[in-house]
Amino acid sequence: MVNSQSTVNKLVNTSSIIFKFLFIDFRLPSFSVEQKRLLKGTADFLAVNFYSVSFAEHHDLSNEENVTWGYFTDQEMKASRDPNWLKG
Where exactly are the structural domains of the chain? Predict the structure, then answer.
């Protein structure tokens, strides 16, 4: 259940976090000029599509020790699912 402004803010920002994780360059290797030349024009269309439903609540990791930052920890979010929901 969404019961705080902090949780609402995390929900709103989740899609932008996922997009940033997939496409920002500090997590991706750099391409050389030759690699870019070889790849140019080889893909006509790229789509990212993902569907999922979870409860989300803020999980502050700033005071925890030994956090390995990555896809899930960057979100600082605790996600859970209702055990009664159907699973695909």
Answer: 1-29+50-88
